[in-house]
Amino acid sequence: MRADQLIIEPVLSEKTNIAREGEIKKYTFRVHMDANKFLIMAAVKELFDVEPVKCNVMIVKGKPKFSRGKGGSILGNTGDWKKAVVTLAKGDSIQAIEGV
Predict the structure, then answer these.
(1) N or C, which end of the chain is more exposed by having fewer CB within 10 Å?
(2) Domain residue ranges in the chain
(3) Architecture of domain 3-92
(4) Residue 9 in contact with residue 2, Cβ under 8 Å?
(5) pLDDT given for residue 100 in this prediction
């Protein structure tokens, strides 16, 4: 699997923005469900030319959704997805996400 297929998108939220500040930067990505730590670290190194030190991977469960229509109420869930938190070496940063 190619690196650009492995990393789907960065997760940009208030919590992840706080993790990017400081000396040791942690970036959060939405990744492919078949990805593992080693593939994710290699993809980050290839795509952004930085040195990842550590990678934590977790599966985020989908949230329940409820809608009403003519046919009555419909219950369902959003899909599960995989999240990776990549810690970079001291002094490294990803310029594409930082916007600098």
Answers:
(1) C
(2) 3-92
(3) 2-Layer Sandwich (3.30)
(4) no
(5) 60
Q: What is the mean pLDDT of the chain?
A: 93
Q: How far apart are CA 18 and CA 94, in angstroms?
A: 15
Task: Identify the residue whose tokens are 């310029």.
Answer: 95
Contacts 24+ apart (CB under 8 A), 44-50: 44/7, 44/86, 46/3, 47/3, 47/4, 47/7, 48/94, 48/95, 48/96, 50/88, 50/89, 50/92, 50/93, 50/94
d(CA 60, CA 34): 14
The whole-model pTM stands at 0.87
Q: What backbone phi and psi angles, to 5 degrees, belong to 29?
A: -130, 150
